[in-house]
Amino acid sequence: MRGKTFIAHDELPEVLERLSKTMDVWIPTAINDEKCVIQFLPYQPDRLPVLDRQSTMPPKKVIFPQVETLLHFSRKKDENDPFKSHIELEDEEEVSPVLVFGARPCDVRGFLVFDEVYLNGPYKDPYYAKRREKTLFATLVCETSDNACFCSAVGSGPADQTGSDLWIIPVDSGYVIEALTKRAENLMPEMGKDATEAQIAEAQNVQKKVAALHIGEGDLTQSSDDFEDRFSDNEFWRDMAFKCISCGICTYVCPTCYCFNITDEAKDLDGERIRSWDSCMFNHYTREASGHNPRPSKLERYRNRIGHKFSYFPKKYKGMIACCGCGRCIRRCPVALDIRNVVLSLKKNKENVDV
Amino acid sequence: MPMDEKTKTLQEDFEKNFADLELVIGWETGFDRLHATPVFIRQPSELGKLVWNPLCSQNLSGYLAKNLDASIQEDGKKIGICVKGCDSRSLVALIQENFIDRDRLYIVGIPCEGTVDLRRLMHLKPSLENVRKVDIEGDEAVVETDQETLRFPIENVLARKCLRCLYPNPVIYDTMIGTPLKPRISEDKLYSAVEKFDTSDRKQRLAFWKTEFNRCIRCYACRNACPLCVCQDNCIAESRKPKWLTQRDGIREKFLFHMIHGLHLAGRCTECGE
Amino acid sequence: MNKKRDMMISETGTQREKEIKIIGFLCNWCSYGGADTAGVCRFKQPTDLRIIRIPCTGRMDPLFVVKSLIYGADGVLVSGCHPKDCHYAVGNLYARRRMELLKRFLPFIGIDTNRFRYTWVSASEGQLWQQVVTEFSEEIHRLGPNAGLNEKMDAETALSLFNTK
Amino acid sequence: MRIGVFICKCGTNIANTVDTEAVARKALEYPDVVYATDYMYTCSEPGQEEIREAIIKNRLQGVVVAACTPHMHEPTFRRAVEKAGLNRYMFEQANIREHVSWVNKDRESNTIKAMDLVHMAVEKLRLNQPLFSSKVPINKRVLVIGGGIAGIQAAMDCSDGGLDVVMVERETTIGGKMAKLDKTFPTIDCSSCILGPKMVDISQKENISLHAYSEIESVSGYIGNFEVKIRKKATYVDWNACTGCGECTQKCPSKKTYDKFNEGLGSTTAINIPFPQAIPKRARINAESCLYLTKGKCKKCEKVCPADAIRFDMEDEIITEDVGAIVVATGYDMFDYSVYGEYGGGRYPDVITSLQYERILSASGPYGGHIVRPSDGKEPRNIVFLSCVGSRDASVGRPYCSGVCCMYIAKQAIITRDHLPDCNCYVSYMDIRSPGKNYDEFIRRAQEEYGINYIRGRVGKIYPKDDRLIVQGVDTLMGVQMDIEADLVVLATGLEASEGARELAEKLRISYDQYGWYMESHPKLRPVETNTAGVYLAGVCQGPKDIPASVAQGSAAAAKVQILFSRDTIETDPQVALVNERVCISCGKCIEVCPFGAIQWKTLRDGSQKAEVLPTVCQGCGLCNATCPPKAVQLQHCTDDQILAEVNAVCE
Questions:
Q1: Which end of chain B is less enclosed by CB atoms within 10 A, N or C?
Q2: How many angstroms separate the CA atoms of D306 and D250, rounded?
Q3: Which of A29, A31, A38 to mutate to test the interface with C (most CBs of C within 10 A)?
């Protein structure tokens, strides 16, 4: 096994270039610098990683694409009886191995939520599993946080290594890389030179310093009972959800939101079955075929979002809350709705609540 | 009038008139002092939350058309709402289209010097921390942090829509806070960007829009923030019957979605920039 | 002939390379009748047009035109009763405003406005209909096939555009 | 769905240039198509039988026929599928004759085009829904708007058939323009002698209620069930009390009131009855010239009225009538000749209109039937009649022929020669149009028996010289200049849509052309119907015509009403708009755009307001569908999805 390696700043493109020969390397990159939108895209020679701040969109789509074709189908009519037909199905082809380079601990933690649902459950999602198995995460120790970040409040932290395969520690002159899983070790020969003692020491200092940080106030992980108590408090939810404009951006930028919709798009006798992101903020999410909707307004929908993340999910999955504290939903919300505030408010003035 | 004073006048005005109001819609400081967020006040004791500053970008008039159904109408009491110049125009449009009843509103208009585009600000100063206050003084945006006071030329940090705003002053109001302002742009220059765009050839224009729409993630925030996008949950972009769009995320679907948005707002848009 | 046709039918992809396809939205009362009249009079026309019968041009949402063009129709022709001559009194007046708006909007978003045309042809104007179809078809042939917004190709072009900026 | 496709060869009409067999074979590849064939004459009885058999044998649920235009045989095929037990709307027709085989000879391209059209029809049909007509009861009362000869005829015919009739007349008396005429062509019989008895009948029929001096305020509802609001304008005389004795008109001191009935020749009193045979014969005070109403002093009429009928405080009153059908017979106005500056533009008192001349000729007119000049009361020695004043002249926006002028000029000239045998009559004409029964003979009599001078050519100028008028023009047949010293010039003024015709059309939601004439549903085959079901046209309001034609159309409109009322209910066309209340966002835009007032607000149980289409009023234009932002309103049988399906069939 190789020890820790070092990549100097100016060697990074070279390393990425080399890695991308054998696998798809997704990096956070600014597609239009002026607009400050950073998203994960496959590495290309003229595409540079932006590592000094959190990406606008998490790397969710690497494993869980916004739209994914599950299968192609085509109906073949019986020549003798055109009413009869048989259906030929064709799965999507295999996926290639992927390295996500430069994700942050919160981004990676999002996939742990996914894993509970799509890998460890009674049912395994083959489409998710297929990509998940072939994906490695090279995660960056997170030195930059802002007022919307709250990873420590959800039981994680800026130096949380859970779910990562490689560990990237930024030091003055570059990055120190460390393999965390067996799968990652094969990649180490590609990861620059061996790190010097001094670099390793510097990296340990950074790691230590960052690990000591507590990002976000309070503890949001034990809110399940509070939520249940509040469930019927319509006035509370009205006030909490009032400013929400029912757009879906919080769910789209969320590394843990895993809901999807499946539709068949057919033309004549051929078509494909596609799976696309869905959002519980949308009216259609729970609309029934009859037209009835059990969550008719944003009050019920917003309550569900909180409940799902902080109560239903941890109840079902060993206490794990479906929130990674990345703060994107707060940062990107057009009306700056603060999910932390809502969760903390669950506790307040409880004596007034008529249960 | 400085921002603090305006905030104070704003609070006082609502306090004076609160007896007639069931609800006040305004802005408060968000999760940090760099963010403002809509606030809905039902108790006079909470009026202290109200703020006015160049971060109050959200157009609150949309809440009136979309979210206030008949049920919250309390015996003849009115809804108080704060509007900037652009917001007031949306309000007029909504009143004209009979989505809201002018008589139910108590409108406090605030002449607006422009709102700060946080993305532009963060681009200039990515590590902006511990902000205390953001204000506009003449042609400069002033950002006070715990450590220092920063000054930026407004053309670098103001939302672009604000730089070409013709209506800094509310066009409809019951009370106005502060004195009317002059637009920062003359009418003849208003469409200079569009004119410039018009000089590009068709293929460049198509490429431009493809690039823009390619970034779209179909989260529908643009639509939901738009005060005049009144279909909301029934938008044909999501409807399966009729089915105008599929769930695919290709450029076609995004393009058509934005065409729907564009054509549905043709002749109605008040250029609030939401 | 049969062989050629069979080829064109089996390879639906290549069939389209030859045929230009124009979608015509025609009001039932005037232009559809005008097209019938042109047929009855045997006024020869190009074969590119596929007519969709609608009750009135007032039924036309401009989005039908946008959708057709984005999805690869080579041309779109909307035709109804002459203004003031609408079967439903005012339907075509609304249509005229909408189509005029669309005509100005299309170039702004980079769609060739020459691929879209609206005209007024009454049920008796078979000759005019022949002229309209012939001229418009010639125009569309001159412009060539419309790629529309092709999914895959465009994702790539769009990305390459980011990088060259 | 199980769809059957039938490709018609139409003999050789289609089969010559379209490979129908290949189209049928291709159709089998489309989704849901389980049966496809071609046939020689699909519309023939055996062809229809084949469709019916195929429906039953293959348990088809929808049928596409690719044949001629649906305008030709859609009803035929709908009946055919209905006979086999399908809903008539589970049918689509692809037009591969008028739109394909007849307009190009390229067999290969035609075949592909036909395949596409069949494909589109199949895709649309897959989204068709069975539609069902509903039945609504008919209110068997008819409203006749306008009490001229056309309206009178329509009202009488309806009344004679046993229908209740409501007649609304704008003036204080019925009779219209015909009541002002002296004689009628080509028989020279007395106009009031033939009209008078009909007017009296109207007043005496028990099933006709007459609202004179009234106008239509608004019309709502739909065929079989209209609700009409009528404004009864203030007459300042209680017509229930007034006996029409005329005492008041004798004593009224305001004698300079414009005499509308006499076309402004002479003047009348502020309180007045237009003419002795008026129906109803009731007095009305002209508020603009009444001394009491303008200056607050007088009340002479009140003092002399033996019936105490004067009501100075009277106001307009709105009444409501419910009817099942409406006959519009609002007639016309005379063209305002003053736009012709070269004819004096109204400045010379002895240049008059033909209708003024009728009043001069009339024994009940201002001069008692003596032909004298308005300026000095002298008998004229030379009279010139000018034809086409405001007709066939695009420069004044009147390119159409008024149709009656040639004839009435001949009539007036003949009567003139009867009255004043020494008076020379000249007629300056462009062309003579006399296509009616005995009309051309009449013109010949004028020329040959009565020695009236017909001069072909236009008059360029009329100017006064001493107390006469010089009519200067050109005689195009002789090729010489024409200068006639005339004592009186009669302008054959053309006909134009009556004042307020457009406003009324909008209330009735019927179409009018660029001149304001009301548009019939079809110029040849539906000449008295409008595009608003239950509204019919009679007389000149639809376009210039003479008395026989107006009477004929009045009777025709009455016949249409009788036909409608011969049933107790009407079946509605189910191809109408329908609102999905769950999707409706209550913006009201559909209500604003609907040309027929077919959409109204409906209050749901939760108090919210949603749009609702009245299926009986809806004409199926789809304007609301195009306007509705969330597409909550969908036009049945032409929904967004159906149009999109057709688009998608062509694209990609």
A1: N
A2: 13
A3: A31
Q: Using CB atoms and an 8 Å cut-off, which of residues 546-585 of chain D contact chain A?
A: 582
Compute the 3-state secondary structure of chain C and give helix, strand, coil in percent, each to the nearest 5: 55, 15, 30
Q: Does any domain span residue B273?
A: no
Query: Which residues have CB under 8 Å from A240's CB, separation 6+?
Result: A302, A303, A306, A342, A345
Q: Are B126 and B206 within one domain?
A: no
B123 shares a domain with B143: yes
Cα(C129)–Cα(A36) distance, integer angstroms: 53
Q: What is the dihedral angle through the alpha carbons of D539, D542, D545, D547, rounded to the nearest 10 degrees?
A: 0
Say if CB A8 and CB A173 are below 8 A apart: yes
| For helices C2-10 and D107-125, angle between their N-to-C axes, nearest 10 degrees | 40
Locate D410 and state its tokens: 């001949």
Do B163 and B122 have their domain in common?
A: no
pLDDT higher than 90, residue A33: no
Q: So where are chain D's domains?
A: 3-125, 141-233+316-331+498-565, 247-304, 333-496, 577-636
Q: Do domains D3-125 and D577-636 have the same CATH topology?
A: no
Q: Which of A50, A55, A213, A245 to mutate to test the interface with B (most CBs of B within 10 A)?
A: A245
- Looking up tokens 């159904």, which residue turns up? B69
* Among B69, B241, B264, beta carbon nearest to D629: B264
Do B230 and D639 make contact, defined as CB atoms within 8 angstroms?
A: no
Q: How many CB atoms lie within 10 A of CB A238?
A: 17
The residue ranges of every structural domain in chain A are 5-76+83-352
Is pLDDT of A80 > 90?
no
Sorted by sequence, the CB contacts under 8 Å of residue D534 that are 6+ apart come out as D222, D223, D224, D226, D324, D325, D326, D564
Three-point CA angle D141, D142, D143, nearest 5°: 130
Q: What is the pLDDT of residue D506?
A: 83
Indicate the pTM of the whole model. 0.79
- C70 and B205 within 8 Å at the Cβ level: the answer is no
CATH number of D141-233+316-331+498-565: 3.50.50.60
Over chain B (274 residues), the average pLDDT of each successive run of 10 is 84 92 93 92 92 94 73 72 94 91 92 90 80 89 90 91 91 93 84 82 86 84 90 88 89 91 90 79
Cα of D36 to nearest chain A Cα, Å: 10
Q: What is the mean pLDDT of residues D520-541?
A: 89
* pLDDT tens by residue, D161-182: 999 999 999 999 999 999 999 9
Judge if B131 and B95 occupy the same domain.
no
Q: Domain D577-636 classified CATH 3.30.70.20?
A: yes
What subunits touch chain D, counting only 3 or more CB pairs under 8 A? A, B, C
* B31 & B167 share domain: yes
Question: In one letter, which amino acid is A212?
Answer: A
Mean of the pLDDT values across residues D106-128? Answer: 96
What's the token pair of residue D310? Answer: 């004067």
Q: What is the pLDDT of residues D410-427, one digit of tens each?
A: 999 999 999 999 999 999
CB D265 within 8 A of CB D360: yes
Contact of C88 with chain D, judged by CB distance below 8 Å, is answered with yes
Based on the structure, what is the number of domains in chain B? 3
Looking at the fold, whether B142 and B226 belong to one and the same domain comes out as no
Q: Would the CB atoms of B58 and A334 count as touching at under 8 Å?
A: yes
Domain that holds residue B254: 196-265
Tell if the CB–CB gap between B210 and C157 is shorter than 8 Å: yes
Provide the 10 A C-beta neighbour count for residue C47.
24
Task: Indicate the fold that domain C19-164 takes in CATH.
Answer: Rossmann fold (3.40.50)
Which chain D residue has the Cα nearest residue C5? D108
Question: If you classify domain D3-125 with CATH, what class do you get?
Answer: alpha beta
Q: How far apart are CA A71 and CA A48, in angstroms?
A: 34
